[in-house]
Every structure is written in structure tokens, then in C-alpha cells.
Design a protein that fits this description.
Largest sheet: 6 strands, mixed
Strand content: 5-15%
CATH superfamily of the largest domain: P-loop containing nucleotide triphosphate hydrolases
Number of strands: 6
Strand order of the largest sheet: 3-2-1-4-6-5
Radius of gyration: 20 Å
Number of helices: 10
Shape: elongated
Number of domains: 2
Structural class: alpha/beta
Helix content: 40-55%
Order of helices and strands: HEHEHEHEHEEHHHHH
């Protein structure tokens, strides 16, 4: 029997997306936040529609969870498309000053255009958009330099839209995580689940962990300096190299968890999500550039 596809579109997201569509009419600039481990899988397919006549600041959060060399590769990849990504670790504050400066620069340009038309300057209205759990609220708290919006390491914490005054020159709209109503790309959906960027009710832990382990092998081959296979053997006492993801979970369950495959799968997922397995990206820049939007 074929396993069901991963789908997750809870009511609060559907409601928030309708409200967001209305608020976007008032917004000057969009902060698009993605997960640095999966920058392509966390690109919302409707972003192009939302960005019409608006400036954008692209933020790739969780930079602490990918190797510096991969970060540099992504910088070059985006640069080739005429884009500049801002890499952050919102939990620790890394990269926030550059994002704040980017927002200031956008604000200066917008208000200069207003002055040129004989209008008074006003605070720039920005919105933070991204998939659930990519770090939007943590980013806002860092920009504010205080905790004003709830932030946690799980999807679906922010459930309502809320305007926050960042400074005299910037108002920011904190929006719940947005997802396509249907996840057409199931490879991307698996990556969202692995990285905890989608609700846990949408997937089976053992299936997701098996997919993660199978995905790791080409990444490990591409980036041998990460010593992924060695890390797995040292941490779990089972060699990953010759096993499928599903077989590895069973072997680990037998070796360490009294044949409890669910517990073995959860342990691997949690270790990855907490960075215990090291800095492991799940996407590398494609060899071919996508067409410019």
C-alpha cells in the first residue's frame, strides 16, 4: 500500500493567509525568512505574487546549522541571480545587524521617493513571511532587542497577525507561518518534516527518519569533510554506509532501544534538529540556475 503524501494546512494558517493577503496591500517591504538547511524547500510558491511592487529582504535563518563553505556556496548562487541573502542565527543574534541595516536602507529609499513626490516620510511597513518554525518570531525579537512575540522550536506558535513598532522608521507585521494549501513537491515536503518546519501531525517519524538517512548519503559523499558517517557510528554504534534508512532504524532499534523503532527514529530526528549530529545541510546549490522571476 502506498504511503499517503505529507500534507498540513491547519485552520489557523488558512485564516491567517486570508488576513495576510489583505494586510499586504499596506506593506512596503517583505522579509522572506527561509531555513538555511533547505533554502529551496522553504521558498513559498506564492512569494512572487506577494512581492508585486514591494521590496524584499531575503533572510536565511539557522546559519549555525550549515557549514561556512556551504553558506558561501549559497551566497554565490544567489548572487548569480542578482540577489543578496542575509544569513542569521536569530536565536543567538548572529547577522541581525545586517538585516536591520537592510531594512533601514529600504526605508530610506521608500521615503526618498515620497519626498520626491512632495509627500512626508512615514514609518516603513514591513511583513515577515516564511514557513512555520523557520525563526520569524525570533528574528523580530532580535530586531526589537526584546521578547515581544512568542517564539519556540516547533511549528505553529504564531497564530495571529500582529503589528510591532521596531523603531520610529519601521513597523513590522508578525505573521503565522504560511504553507501552500497543497504540498505538490513531496521531496520538499519530506525536507520540511525532517527540519521540523511543518506540523508533526502530518507525518510518520519512522518514514521521515528513513528518508533523512537516505538523503544524507549523497550529502555526505558531496561533503566528506563533515564526517557524517563517522559521526553516526560514534554516536549510535551502528554503521550507516551499507544500510538503507529503514534498515538503519531497525538495526539501531535492535542495538540500543530494545527493538523500539519509533524511539530510534525519534532520537535521530531530535539529534539532527538540535545540531547534535553537526552542521548538516539537506540542500546544496543546484548546478543549474533557475530562471529569473
Amino acid at each position: 500500500m502506498t504511503a499517503p503524501p505529507i500534507q498540513w494546512y491547519p485552520g489557523h494558517i488558512a485564516k491567517a493567509e486570508r488576513a495576510l493577503t489583505e494586510q499586504l496591500k499596506k506593506v512596503d517591504v517583505v522579509f522572506e525568512v527561509r531555513d538555511a538547511r533547505i533554502p529551496l524547500a522553504t521558498q513559498h510558491p506564492q512569494m512572487g505574487q506577494w512581492l508585486v511592487n514591494k521590496d524584499r529582504v531575503l533572510v536565511l535563518n539557522r546559519v549555525d546549522m550549515i557549514p561556512p563553505a556551504v553558506q558561501q556556496d549559497w551566497i554565490e548562487w544567489f548572487k548569480a541571480q542578482g540577489e543578496r541573502p542575509y544569513f542569521t542565527n536569530a536565536n543567538q543574534g548572529q547577522g541581525i545587524a545586517a538585516v536591520a541595516q537592510a531594512a533601514q536602507n529600504v526605508g530610506d529609499r521608500i521615503n526618498q521617493r515620497r519626498r520626491d513626490r512632495g509627500m512626508l516620510p512615514r514609518p516603513v511597513r514591513a511583513v515577515v513571511i516564511g514557513f512555520p518554525n523557520v525563526g520569524k518570531s525570533a528574528l523580530i525579537n532580535r530586531l526589537l532587542r526584546k521578547r515581544v512575540v512568542d517564539s519556540a522550536r516547533r511549528a505553529g506558535v504564531t497564530r495571529q497577525l500582529r503589528w510591532v513598532r521596531i523603531s520610529e522608521t519601521l513597523d513590522l507585521l508578525d505573521a503565522p507561518g504560511v504553507l501552500p494549501s497543497k504540498l505538490e513537491d513531496q521531496k520538499a515536503a519530506f525536507k520540511l518534516a525532517i527540519c521540523d518546519d511543518i506540523g508533526e501531525a502530518s507525518y510518520d517519524n519512522q518514514r521521515i527518519t528513513a528518508a533523512f538517512l537516505d538523503l544524507l548519503k549523497p550529502i555526505a559523499a558531496e561533503l566528506p569533510e563533515l564526517n557524517v558517517m563517522q559521526s553516526f557510528e560514534e554516536r549510535y554504534g551502528v554503521t550507516l554506509t551499507s544500510l538503507t534508512g529503514e534498515s538503519y532504524i531497525e538495526a539501531l532499534a535492535d542495538h540500543k532501544y530494545h527493538s523500539d523503532s519509533e524511539r530510534a527514529a525519534r532520537q535521530i530526528l531530535n539529534d539532527f534538529r538540535k545540531g547534535i549530529l553537526g552542521t548538516i545541510p539537506l540542500e546544496l546549490p543546484p548546478l543549474e540556475l533557475p530562471p529569473l522571476e
